[in-house]
Write a structure and sequence with these properties.
It is a single chain. The chain is mainly beta and about 180 residues long. It has one helix at about 55, and strands at about 1-5, 10, 25-30, 30-35, 40-45, 65-70, 75-80, 85-90, 90-95, 105-110, 115-120, 125-130, 130-135, 145-150, 160, 165-170, 175-180. About 0% of the residues lie in helices and about 50% in strands.
Length: about 180
């Protein structure tokens, strides 16, 4: 969309990617663009989505499994190999590397204390308090190590859900963690 009075373009639409060959004229109408071209009349609606080239974000992170918005407005992305990426004003950066050795981060939850709970694909549950991970598995009382999401109930109970069911996460007044399956 070209603004001749300012000599700038405010929006770029790659018509070749949209299959429009040799565009000859364009008209904006109600957030749509009408394009006359060699292959006919085309109506284009600009996308509401932004696509990021993941290789430009962080080259080793090309698969993402979870998203979470923190209470402070921060935005986290869980990836494979136990990594958590944070969205910054300038793009993305790695916040935590290798919380678990090889599993994907399936879900992230921030509790009322500001602790981050991390459900992993098959390496149990991680708790980040003071930025140091504590890992819990079936050896600590979890129902299984393949976890996928969290559930907070209206009566104050907190659960982690996985392939074999769910475990209630119980945090004592002194901060010790236990599980009820």
């Amino acid at each position: 969309y070209f603004h001749p009075e300012k000599a700038v373009a405010s929006q770029f639409i790659n018509t070749i990617d949209l299959g429009v060959i040799w565009p000859t004229n364009m008209l904006k109408e109600d957030n749509f663009f009408w394009v006359g071209s060699y292959n006919g009349l085309v109506k284009i609606k600009p996308s509401i989505f932004t696509v990021y080239d993941v290789t430009k974000i962080l080259s080793r992170h090309q698969d993402y499994y979870s998203f979470f918005e923190l209470k402070n407005g921060g935005f986290l992305i869980g990836s494979n190999r136990g990594n958590i990426i944070q969205k910054t004003d300038d793009g993305f950066s790695e916040l935590y590397k290798g919380i678990v050795a090889t599993a994907e981060i399936k879900s992230i939850h921030e509790d009322e204390r500001g602790w981050l709970w991390i459900a992993t694909g098959y390496q149990g549950l991680a708790l980040l308090k003071k930025d140091k991970p504590i890992i819990f598995t079936t050896q600590n009382g979890l129902h299984d190590n393949s976890l996928s999401q969290f559930l907070n109930t209206g009566d104050g109970r907190f659960y982690v859900i996985g392939d074999q069911g769910l475990s209630e996460i119980i945090v004592s007044g002194s901060g010790n963690v236990s599980f009820k399956t």
